[in-house]
Amino acid sequence: MPDAERATGTTGRAGTTGGASTTGGTGTTGGTGTTGTTGGTAGTGTTAGDLAPGLAAAAAGVAAATGHRAVVLIDGRSGTGKTTLGAQVAEQLGAQLVHLDDLYPGWDGLRAASDALVTDVLGAPSGYRRWDWDADGPAEWTSVDPDLPIVVEGCGALSRASAPLASLRVWLEADDAVRWDRAIGRDGEVFAREWDRWAAQEQAFIAAEDPAALADVVLRT
């Protein structure tokens, strides 16, 4: 519900250049990922499809260098375009795609999902119980293959605990008015009623974790 969005990337830093984005060559390696230090800009009108090949290639390169599977974390507030970019990167990587939308245990569950991502999805037992928004309760168990590449998108994906487990960390930003239009255009009154409630959790998470500072790539959509 909160994070099923579309994406059109426009600007980037930390090693993205146009449609063939890569992490900065002068970056430092930590855990299974890298932190780039070079900047770049994607042209106006650049889409998720333009950016995805470069991001996927960067993640695959880190995975090959470290001997770990590719793990891409895509975070940002509602309406920034995480879902579309995540789908495109997963397609390029041939990766599993996990939406944090399926992990949030209701409208107050951002932090719980962020924690579960680290302990259950990226760690053992490598899976999660999908949240059924219509029934307002847990649904079926969804397994995640610990040996295959994985892309995770959603607010709460990029935390101090999850960052060391990733090959590539992406933070998306957009103006508040743009985010509102996208979210309400998608979910209508359902999200309009919960906007402030969810935004407060986003803000608390950002204040606690500073995901933009953890990111290898920051894009304005």
From TrEMBL:
Keyword GTP-binding applies: no
The keyword Cytoplasm is annotated on this UniProt entry: no
Keywords: ATP-binding, Nucleotide-binding
Compositionally skewed regions (Gly residues) per UniProt: 15-43
Region of interest (Disordered), ranges: 1-45
SUPFAM superfamilies, per the entry: P-loop containing nucleoside triphosphate hydrolases
Protein name per UniProt: ATP-binding protein
